[in-house]
Design brief:
By secondary structure, the protein is of the alpha+beta class. Helices cover 33% and strands 16% of the residues.
Length: 260
Protein backbone atom coordinates (compact mmCIF):
# COMPACT_ATOMS: atom_id res chain seq x y z
CA UNK A 1 0.00 0.00 0.00
CA UNK A 2 1.56 3.30 -1.08
CA UNK A 3 1.72 5.88 1.72
CA UNK A 4 0.94 9.59 1.29
CA UNK A 5 1.48 12.23 3.95
CA UNK A 6 -1.96 13.78 4.70
CA UNK A 7 -0.33 17.25 5.04
CA UNK A 8 2.08 17.54 2.07
CA UNK A 9 1.21 14.31 0.16
CA UNK A 10 4.88 13.27 0.04
CA UNK A 11 5.28 9.52 -0.46
CA UNK A 12 8.52 8.84 1.45
CA UNK A 13 8.26 8.27 5.19
CA UNK A 14 10.05 6.67 8.13
CA UNK A 15 8.33 3.78 9.90
CA UNK A 16 8.09 4.42 13.64
CA UNK A 17 8.07 1.82 16.40
CA UNK A 18 4.40 2.42 17.29
CA UNK A 19 3.21 1.59 13.75
CA UNK A 20 2.91 5.18 12.57
CA UNK A 21 4.89 6.88 9.82
CA UNK A 22 6.89 10.13 9.84
CA UNK A 23 7.00 12.15 6.62
CA UNK A 24 10.56 12.76 5.40
CA UNK A 25 9.60 16.16 4.00
CA UNK A 26 7.47 17.87 6.66
CA UNK A 27 7.93 15.57 9.67
CA UNK A 28 4.19 14.96 10.12
CA UNK A 29 3.38 11.70 11.93
CA UNK A 30 0.38 9.74 10.68
CA UNK A 31 -1.20 6.33 10.21
CA UNK A 32 -1.95 5.28 6.60
CA UNK A 33 -5.69 5.14 5.87
CA UNK A 34 -6.81 2.17 3.82
CA UNK A 35 -9.87 2.25 1.56
CA UNK A 36 -11.62 -0.11 4.00
CA UNK A 37 -11.03 2.28 6.91
CA UNK A 38 -12.06 5.36 4.90
CA UNK A 39 -15.71 4.64 5.72
CA UNK A 40 -16.77 5.36 9.31
CA UNK A 41 -19.21 2.46 9.37
CA UNK A 42 -18.57 -0.29 11.89
CA UNK A 43 -16.38 -3.12 10.55
CA UNK A 44 -19.17 -5.68 11.00
CA UNK A 45 -21.54 -3.46 9.01
CA UNK A 46 -19.01 -3.05 6.21
CA UNK A 47 -18.53 -6.80 5.99
CA UNK A 48 -22.30 -7.29 5.77
CA UNK A 49 -22.60 -4.63 3.08
CA UNK A 50 -19.74 -6.22 1.18
CA UNK A 51 -21.71 -9.48 1.08
CA UNK A 52 -24.64 -7.61 -0.51
CA UNK A 53 -22.27 -5.90 -2.93
CA UNK A 54 -20.76 -9.16 -4.14
CA UNK A 55 -24.26 -10.52 -4.72
CA UNK A 56 -25.17 -7.40 -6.71
CA UNK A 57 -27.96 -6.16 -4.41
CA UNK A 58 -28.71 -2.47 -5.17
CA UNK A 59 -29.00 -0.04 -2.27
CA UNK A 60 -32.73 0.56 -2.79
CA UNK A 61 -33.40 -3.16 -2.29
CA UNK A 62 -31.74 -3.03 1.13
CA UNK A 63 -34.09 -0.35 2.50
CA UNK A 64 -36.04 -2.65 4.85
CA UNK A 65 -33.03 -4.48 6.29
CA UNK A 66 -30.43 -1.77 5.90
CA UNK A 67 -27.73 -1.72 8.60
CA UNK A 68 -26.89 1.94 7.82
CA UNK A 69 -28.28 5.04 6.12
CA UNK A 70 -28.57 5.10 2.34
CA UNK A 71 -25.94 7.87 1.84
CA UNK A 72 -23.44 5.98 4.03
CA UNK A 73 -23.99 2.75 2.09
CA UNK A 74 -23.68 4.50 -1.27
CA UNK A 75 -20.42 6.15 -0.19
CA UNK A 76 -18.99 2.82 0.96
CA UNK A 77 -19.97 1.20 -2.34
CA UNK A 78 -18.35 4.06 -4.27
CA UNK A 79 -15.11 3.37 -2.40
CA UNK A 80 -15.36 -0.33 -3.26
CA UNK A 81 -16.03 0.43 -6.93
CA UNK A 82 -13.13 2.90 -7.03
CA UNK A 83 -10.74 0.23 -5.72
CA UNK A 84 -11.87 -2.21 -8.42
CA UNK A 85 -11.79 0.48 -11.13
CA UNK A 86 -8.25 1.44 -10.11
CA UNK A 87 -7.09 -2.17 -10.43
CA UNK A 88 -8.57 -2.37 -13.93
CA UNK A 89 -7.02 0.98 -14.86
CA UNK A 90 -3.56 -0.29 -13.87
CA UNK A 91 -3.91 -3.55 -15.79
CA UNK A 92 -1.11 -4.16 -18.30
CA UNK A 93 -1.79 -3.46 -22.01
CA UNK A 94 -3.17 -6.44 -23.91
CA UNK A 95 -1.31 -8.36 -26.61
CA UNK A 96 -2.19 -11.21 -28.94
CA UNK A 97 -5.57 -11.77 -30.60
CA UNK A 98 -7.82 -8.87 -29.57
CA UNK A 99 -11.41 -7.89 -30.36
CA UNK A 100 -12.30 -4.18 -30.41
CA UNK A 101 -15.72 -2.55 -30.49
CA UNK A 102 -17.76 0.44 -29.25
CA UNK A 103 -21.25 0.75 -27.81
CA UNK A 104 -23.46 3.14 -25.87
CA UNK A 105 -24.88 2.85 -22.36
CA UNK A 106 -28.05 4.60 -21.25
CA UNK A 107 -31.80 4.21 -21.22
CA UNK A 108 -34.08 4.69 -24.21
CA UNK A 109 -35.06 8.34 -24.74
CA UNK A 110 -37.17 10.30 -27.17
CA UNK A 111 -35.41 12.24 -29.90
CA UNK A 112 -32.27 11.50 -31.88
CA UNK A 113 -31.06 7.92 -31.98
CA UNK A 114 -27.68 6.41 -32.70
CA UNK A 115 -24.27 7.69 -31.63
CA UNK A 116 -25.53 11.25 -31.16
CA UNK A 117 -28.44 10.36 -28.86
CA UNK A 118 -28.81 12.53 -25.75
CA UNK A 119 -27.99 11.05 -22.35
CA UNK A 120 -25.86 8.22 -23.72
CA UNK A 121 -22.31 7.35 -22.68
CA UNK A 122 -20.07 6.05 -25.46
CA UNK A 123 -17.80 3.21 -24.35
CA UNK A 124 -14.89 1.55 -26.15
CA UNK A 125 -13.81 -1.97 -25.24
CA UNK A 126 -11.11 -4.48 -26.10
CA UNK A 127 -11.06 -8.13 -25.10
CA UNK A 128 -8.46 -10.85 -25.43
CA UNK A 129 -9.73 -13.97 -27.14
CA UNK A 130 -11.03 -16.20 -24.31
CA UNK A 131 -9.49 -13.85 -21.74
CA UNK A 132 -9.61 -10.47 -20.04
CA UNK A 133 -11.48 -7.31 -21.00
CA UNK A 134 -10.83 -3.57 -20.80
CA UNK A 135 -13.54 -0.93 -21.26
CA UNK A 136 -13.46 2.83 -20.88
CA UNK A 137 -15.78 5.79 -21.59
CA UNK A 138 -14.73 8.00 -24.50
CA UNK A 139 -15.63 11.60 -25.23
CA UNK A 140 -16.94 11.05 -28.74
CA UNK A 141 -17.48 8.34 -31.34
CA UNK A 142 -14.44 9.39 -33.35
CA UNK A 143 -11.54 7.59 -34.92
CA UNK A 144 -9.02 9.69 -32.98
CA UNK A 145 -10.54 8.71 -29.61
CA UNK A 146 -10.72 5.01 -30.48
CA UNK A 147 -7.17 4.85 -31.84
CA UNK A 148 -5.88 6.67 -28.76
CA UNK A 149 -7.45 4.00 -26.53
CA UNK A 150 -6.05 1.21 -28.69
CA UNK A 151 -2.52 2.62 -28.54
CA UNK A 152 -2.80 3.15 -24.79
CA UNK A 153 -4.27 -0.24 -23.83
CA UNK A 154 -2.80 -2.66 -26.39
CA UNK A 155 0.66 -3.68 -27.53
CA UNK A 156 1.82 -2.95 -31.11
CA UNK A 157 2.00 -6.08 -33.24
CA UNK A 158 -1.24 -7.56 -31.91
CA UNK A 159 -3.91 -9.13 -34.09
CA UNK A 160 -7.02 -6.91 -34.09
CA UNK A 161 -10.52 -8.08 -34.94
CA UNK A 162 -12.95 -5.21 -35.60
CA UNK A 163 -16.10 -4.37 -37.52
CA UNK A 164 -16.16 -2.43 -40.79
CA UNK A 165 -15.95 1.06 -39.31
CA UNK A 166 -13.46 3.09 -41.35
CA UNK A 167 -11.69 4.42 -38.24
CA UNK A 168 -10.04 1.00 -37.81
CA UNK A 169 -8.34 1.05 -41.21
CA UNK A 170 -5.09 2.48 -39.82
CA UNK A 171 -4.71 -0.49 -37.44
CA UNK A 172 -2.66 -2.18 -40.16
CA UNK A 173 0.10 0.30 -39.31
CA UNK A 174 0.51 -1.05 -35.76
CA UNK A 175 -0.45 -4.72 -36.16
CA UNK A 176 -2.45 -7.27 -38.11
CA UNK A 177 -6.08 -6.40 -38.78
CA UNK A 178 -9.05 -8.63 -39.59
CA UNK A 179 -12.29 -6.91 -40.63
CA UNK A 180 -15.51 -8.69 -39.65
CA UNK A 181 -18.23 -8.24 -42.23
CA UNK A 182 -21.82 -8.97 -41.27
CA UNK A 183 -25.00 -9.80 -43.11
CA UNK A 184 -28.28 -9.29 -41.24
CA UNK A 185 -26.34 -9.01 -37.97
CA UNK A 186 -24.42 -12.26 -38.42
CA UNK A 187 -20.70 -12.47 -39.25
CA UNK A 188 -19.82 -13.77 -42.69
CA UNK A 189 -17.23 -16.52 -42.37
CA UNK A 190 -15.47 -17.93 -39.32
CA UNK A 191 -14.04 -14.68 -37.97
CA UNK A 192 -16.14 -12.86 -35.37
CA UNK A 193 -16.13 -10.40 -32.47
CA UNK A 194 -18.53 -12.41 -30.32
CA UNK A 195 -16.30 -11.99 -27.27
CA UNK A 196 -16.61 -8.22 -26.93
CA UNK A 197 -20.26 -8.26 -27.99
CA UNK A 198 -20.92 -10.85 -25.31
CA UNK A 199 -19.26 -8.58 -22.75
CA UNK A 200 -21.53 -5.68 -23.76
CA UNK A 201 -24.53 -7.90 -23.04
CA UNK A 202 -23.00 -8.99 -19.70
CA UNK A 203 -22.29 -5.39 -18.66
CA UNK A 204 -25.71 -4.01 -19.58
CA UNK A 205 -27.53 -6.87 -17.88
CA UNK A 206 -25.46 -6.35 -14.73
CA UNK A 207 -26.14 -2.59 -14.63
CA UNK A 208 -29.85 -2.84 -15.45
CA UNK A 209 -31.07 -3.46 -11.84
CA UNK A 210 -29.48 -0.19 -10.67
CA UNK A 211 -32.22 1.79 -12.47
CA UNK A 212 -29.80 4.29 -13.91
CA UNK A 213 -26.25 5.27 -13.02
CA UNK A 214 -25.13 8.89 -12.33
CA UNK A 215 -22.88 10.05 -15.15
CA UNK A 216 -20.17 11.28 -12.79
CA UNK A 217 -19.90 7.78 -11.28
CA UNK A 218 -20.37 5.75 -14.47
CA UNK A 219 -16.62 5.07 -14.81
CA UNK A 220 -16.69 3.38 -11.38
CA UNK A 221 -19.60 1.13 -12.33
CA UNK A 222 -17.88 0.26 -15.63
CA UNK A 223 -14.64 -0.57 -13.80
CA UNK A 224 -16.62 -2.76 -11.39
CA UNK A 225 -18.24 -4.69 -14.26
CA UNK A 226 -14.87 -5.22 -15.95
CA UNK A 227 -13.37 -6.47 -12.68
CA UNK A 228 -16.28 -8.86 -12.10
CA UNK A 229 -15.96 -10.21 -15.65
CA UNK A 230 -12.20 -10.67 -15.33
CA UNK A 231 -12.63 -12.49 -11.99
CA UNK A 232 -15.83 -14.36 -12.84
CA UNK A 233 -14.27 -17.74 -12.03
CA UNK A 234 -13.29 -16.78 -8.46
CA UNK A 235 -14.94 -16.18 -5.10
CA UNK A 236 -15.01 -12.39 -5.27
CA UNK A 237 -15.69 -11.61 -1.60
CA UNK A 238 -12.20 -12.36 -0.20
CA UNK A 239 -10.55 -10.76 -3.24
CA UNK A 240 -12.44 -7.47 -2.80
CA UNK A 241 -11.89 -7.43 0.97
CA UNK A 242 -8.16 -7.96 0.49
CA UNK A 243 -7.93 -5.12 -2.03
CA UNK A 244 -9.93 -2.76 0.19
CA UNK A 245 -7.46 -3.28 3.03
CA UNK A 246 -4.38 -3.10 0.79
CA UNK A 247 -5.30 0.04 -1.18
CA UNK A 248 -4.52 3.47 0.24
CA UNK A 249 -7.48 5.85 0.17
CA UNK A 250 -5.37 8.59 -1.45
CA UNK A 251 -4.82 6.30 -4.44
CA UNK A 252 -8.53 6.19 -5.28
CA UNK A 253 -9.38 9.77 -4.30
CA UNK A 254 -8.63 11.21 -7.80
CA UNK A 255 -11.08 8.83 -9.53
CA UNK A 256 -13.98 8.91 -7.06
CA UNK A 257 -15.76 11.52 -9.19
CA UNK A 258 -15.35 12.11 -12.92
CA UNK A 259 -16.43 15.46 -14.31
CA UNK A 260 -17.52 15.95 -17.90
Amino acid sequence: MRRHCPDCHFTWAYRLGDGRFKCRRCGHRYRPLSAFDASRLAPAVKLQLLEYFVLGVPVYRQRFRSPASRPAIERFYRIVRAVLALEEELREPFAGALECDETTFGGARKGKRGWGAAGKVIVFGVIKRNGLVKAMPIQAHSGAEVLRCIREHTTPGSLYYTDEWQAYISLRLIGDHVVIRKEKGRPMGRDHINGIEGFWSYAKNWLYPYRGVPRKFFHLYLGEVCWRFNNRGCDQYPLILQRLKATHFDEIRPILVQNG
